[in-house]
From TrEMBL:
InterPro entries: EGF (IPR000742), EGF_extracell (IPR013111), Laminin/Netrin_ECM (IPR050440), Laminin_N (IPR008211), LE_dom (IPR002049), LMN_ATRN_NET-like_EGF (IPR056863). Keywords: Disulfide bond, EGF-like domain, Glycoprotein, Laminin EGF-like domain, Repeat, Signal. Residues 35-286 form the Laminin N-terminal domain. CDD domains: EGF_Lam. The gene is NTNG2. It holds the Pfam family EGF_2. It comes from Oreochromis niloticus (Nile tilapia). Residues 406-455 form the Laminin EGF-like domain. One of its GO terms (biological process) is animal organ morphogenesis. Residues 1-19 form the signal peptide. Residues 492-511 are annotated as: Disordered. It comes from the Eukaryota. PANTHER family: NETRIN-G2, NETRIN/LAMININ-RELATED. This is Netrin G2.
Length: 511
């Protein structure tokens, strides 16, 4: 392909190249954090990073060296393919190389000397990454285009394959399909897999070399022939089921089924003029990053989205580790012109296990955290219980009653904190789940001071406080005295003051 052709292709890409969707976040965050935008990487020619595999083994010419003729001049068979000679070999990588100085380089197969056995070849192009095609896929055949071939694609790294488009000089005969052109397609059936005769008929090997999978024309059905109205296309991408997937792939496969025949039947007396030769495969596409990345880079020889919006994964297909509790969603082209980022754990619906609906973004540690957790919960996602509460393990984290009060006795416990199973940590002599009773041999000692169980079995009744294990300080209106070795007493409440007599009250009080 000439340089001018490449430039022309790049120029044609312009509608996609407009600055729409090329940044993922505002440069300067507000107090609440940066503003996120739907974003996607720019398209590039993916031939630079494709892995090429051809099948069956031995289909590439030159081992052993072989002479071949051309369809245009079948009796001049002076050309030779020789895998051991750099100048005469035609290995598969010449389908994806950059041609310099106008020298066309190409992969070439063995000739059809085994006719009538079919001459079959598979070319598998692998990226190991979801890509979205944004312009025509163009395969350039030297020495004539095949009279029958299928373009297939995989969206799961080669596990399953679907046909993308059939190509034949006679669609009905080759595939039992009536011939169609992309221009026959309407918005309702734009993802239909068709058979076309447009790229398989003989017009001379030098006149027409390209076999095209038409992407522009399909886009044009929505965006207009010059792709002026890209907004219409973006809207369709979001609203028409299966449309984005139709333009998505991880691998492509060309199944070459019958070579160029020069516009006539196979001539058995000169089979050396039948073979396949491909000089270039252009695949303009962008990394599929679910609108969460504006860059895509080669890392460890694999394409990888540089994810923003707190997303992660090769295609930004999940939330990053800190934000895993938030449901992941792809970004959206809508509403136009800026779309919606649908970033992880951002916005009003932050993930707080149902105990709050407010989040705050802490810029310097890049974390979104719940604010005002209710139901005695706390934590970034309201996933812990407040001090003095423990989690009822038999309830889901989202239950209103998930946090149960520890009820640790203020005097008997070391702290208000309890274990996962609700056990308080007791002071010496105290026991029980809440530390509200005494061990054998200990007695509870009430009063204002934080003394609990008295190893000396000294206790002052009626709320008296034992001082120095010797005497009781009695509350108001009580008196008491020390008696060694036994209970201390605050036993003597004075008589209540005489009350004024009232007939009704005295009747009630006597009951
Ligand atoms: C090409 O791939 C298809 C599908 O896997 C397979 O059935 C066929 O045998 C392959 N052809 C060649 C020539 O390897
Ligand atoms: C393909 O990509 C995945 C995901 O990034 C990676 O783990 C794997 O190693 C890659 N495989 C090859 C053959 O490069
Ligand atoms: C697509 O739909 C249009 C209009 O509904 C119809 O005319 C056309 O034949 C369809 N094309 C295919 C390939 O089914
Ligand atoms: C924990 O929840 C279960 C189920 O609702 C309930 O039966 C149990 O009483 C709860 N336990 C506590 C300590 O509240
Ligand atoms: C103690 O007695 C006084 C009067 O003698 C009385 O006013 C007060 O209410 C009593 N206090 C208590 C706690 O019984
Ligand atoms: Ca080439």
């Amino acid at each position: 392909m000439s340089i001018s052709h490449v430039l022309a292709l790049l120029a044609l890409l312009l509608p996609w190249g407009r600055c729409q969707f090329d940044v993922c976040r505002s440069l300067h965050g507000s107090k609440a954090g940066p503003e996120f935008y739907a974003c996607q990487p720019p398209p590039t020619n993916m031939k630079e990073v494709m892995q090429i595999r051809v099948d069956p083994p031995g289909i590439t010419c030159g081992n052993p060296p072989e002479r071949f003729c051309t369809l245009e001049n079948p009796y001049l068979c002076s050309d030779e393919c020789d895998a051991s000679s750099p100048d005469l070999s035609h290995p598969p990588q010449l389908m994806g190389d950059r041609e310099r100085g106008g020298l066309i380089t190409y992969w070439q197969t063995i000739t059809w000397s085994r006719f009538p056995e079919p001459l079959l070849a598979n070319i598998t192009l692998t990226w190991n990454k979801s890509l979205e095609v944004v312009d025509d896929i163009v395969v350039t055949f030297e020495y004539g285009r095949p009279t029958s071939m299928v373009l297939e694609k995989s969206i799961d790294k080669g596990v399953t394959w679907q046909p993308y488009q059939y190509y034949a000089d006679d669609c009905l005969e080759a595939f039992g399909m009536s011939p169609k052109r992309v221009t026959d397609l309407a918005p309702s059936n734009i993802t239909r897999v068709i058979c076309t005769e447009q790229y398989s008929r003989w017009v001379g090997a030098k006149e027409e070399k390209s076999v095209v999978f038409e992407v522009r024309a399909r886009f044009g059905v929505f965006a207009g022939p010059k792709l002026i109205n890209m907004d219409a296309l973006y809207t369709r991408m979001e609203t028409t089921k299966g449309l984005r997937d139709f333009f998505t792939f991880t691998n492509l496969r060309l199944r070459l089924l019958r070579p160029a025949l020069g516009g006539t039947y196979v001539q058995r007396d000169n089979l050396l003029k039948y073979f396949y030769a491909i000089s270039n495969i252009d695949v303009f596409a962008r990394c599929k990053c679910n609108l969460h990345a504006s860059q895509c880079a080669l890392r460890d020889a694999t394409l990888q989205c540089e994810c923003d919006h707190n997303t992660a994964g090769q295609d930004c297909q999940s939330c990053s580790r800190e934000f895993t509790s938030r449901t992941w969603r792809p970004g959206s082209y809508l509403p136009l012109p800026k779309g919606t980022a649908n970033a992880c754990c951002w916005g009003t619906d932050c993930e707080c296990n149902g105990h709050s609906n407010r989040c705050s973004y802490i810029d310097f540690i890049n974390v979104v955290t719940c604010v005002s957790c209710k139901h005695n919960t706390r934590g970034q996602n309201c996933q812990y219980c407040r001090l003095g509460y423990y989690q009822n393990a038999s309830l889901p984290l989202t239950d209103e009653n998930v946090c149960v009060e520890c009820e640790c006795h203020a005097d008997g416990s070391v702290s208000p904190r309890c274990s996962d199973s609700g056990l308080c940590q007791c002071k010496d002599g105290a026991t029980g789940r809440r530390c509200d009773s005494c061990l054998p041999g200990y007695t509870w000692r009430g009063g204002g001071v934080a003394n609990v169980c008295d190893g000396e079995r000294l206790v002052c009744r009626n709320g008296g406080t034992c001082v120095d294990f010797l005497r009781c300080v009695c509350p108001e209106n009580f008196t008491g005295k020390h008696s060694s070795g036994g209970e201390q007493n605050c036993l003597n409440p004075p008589l209540p003051p005489p009350r004024p007599l009232h007939p009704v009250l005295s009747t009630l009080s006597s009951e």
